[in-house]
Amino acid sequence: MNLHKIFGDGIRSTNKNGRTLVYLWLANFLFSLLVLAPFYFLLSSNLSRSLAGYSVLRGIDFLWLGDMIYKYQDLLPALLGWAVVPIVFYLGLSIFLNGGVIGGIISRAGKNEKMTLASFFGDCGKYFFRFFRIFLISLVAYALVFGLLVRFISGLLGLWNARASTEWGSLISSNLGLLITLLLLSMVQMFFDYVKIRVVVEESRKTARATLSTLKFVGKNFLKAWLLYLSVAVLFILVSAVFLLVGRILPELSPVYLAIIFIWQQLYVLARMWTKVLFFSTEYQFFKIRQISQAPSEPS
Questions:
Q1: Are 229 and 190 in contact (CB under 8 A)?
Q2: CA angle 148-232-143, nearest 5°?
Q3: Residue 250 vs residue 284, higher pLDDT
Q4: pLDDT in tens, 17-55
Q5: Is residue 300 part of a domain?
Q6: Gap between the Cα atoms of 272 and 114, Å rounded
Q7: Between 137 and 83, whose confidence is greater?
Q8: What angle do CA 158, 164, 170 make, to 5 degrees?
Q9: Cβ atoms within 10 A of the Cβ of 214, count?
């Protein structure tokens, strides 16, 4: 199996679904406006035309941020509690939008049909409850992996760190622990991506059965599937690094500074959306090819 070809097909499929990126960006932009608007009016009414407001525009200064947290420490618990609400709604929004992304990729695979707003949100609603059940199953998997496996690995690294004679041992063990945690996270995320793809491909409502079937599929094809997933993840890291580096060299505060920053940030959001669609596109291409190659041949 040529992973390079699958990766290329995934990129072509992602570029073909350009309207999906627009719908994703629009949904995330509107959600961000709803969440950030109260904070904007709060900062604008209290910090506008002040040195503190100037500091916010130039970029967050952590000493200034510490002073603000200390000054308004009584409000911090309330703000943190309020932040839980947007997080929950964002998770629900992500589950909802994933239905439109995966449904669109699979329904238009090999066709020249164009995505429409109605079909996109139609798929979002069609698969929402199935994907929500998959999300609940994934919570159990994350709890098992991070509650047991990661703690066990952390314990082993802690024993190694206790025997280290220099600070390098602590530094290496902490970074190694973070790397292992991220790799485990990628495995779990990849697995449940394939569960969603199977549910859409097979038009199945039985998410528990689809999870068990996908466990068998991923078990047979784990290394290649994971390598493909990590390839997209590395591409995302490289794109993020480029956006971060360019963001650091943008001009300082000026009449057009905020507009430049805003446009650059929205381009990065689009890049994130593109990578998200690419994950699903490459995974669907891999799933389709492996399903065909592993299907039992009919007797002649």
A1: yes
A2: 15
A3: 284
A4: 888 999 999 998 888 888 776 666 655 555 555 555 545
A5: no
A6: 22
A7: 137
A8: 60
A9: 21
Structural domains of the chain, count: 1
Tell me if 192 is assigned to some domain.
Answer: yes
Region 240-268: mean pLDDT is: 78
Render the burial of 55-90: b for 16+ CB within 10 Å, e for the rest. Answer: bbeeeeeeeeeeebeeeeeeeeeeeeeeeeeeeeee
Q: What is the reported pTM?
A: 0.81
Length of the chain: 300
* 232: containing domain: 3-290
Is 295 a domain residue?
no
CB atoms within 10 A of CB 256: 9
Cβ–Cβ contacts within 10 Å for residue 128, how many?
17
Let me know if residue 140 belongs to a domain. Answer: yes
Q: And the tokens for 58?
A: 């130039």
Backbone angles phi, psi at 53, to 5 degrees: -65, -40
- Summary mean pLDDT of the chain: 81
HEC secondary structure over 80-143: HHHHHHHHHHHHHHHHHHHHHHHHHHHHCCCCCCCCCHHHHHHHHHHHHHHHHHHHHHHHHHHH
Q: What is the C-alpha separation between 39 and 270, in angstroms, rounded?
A: 24
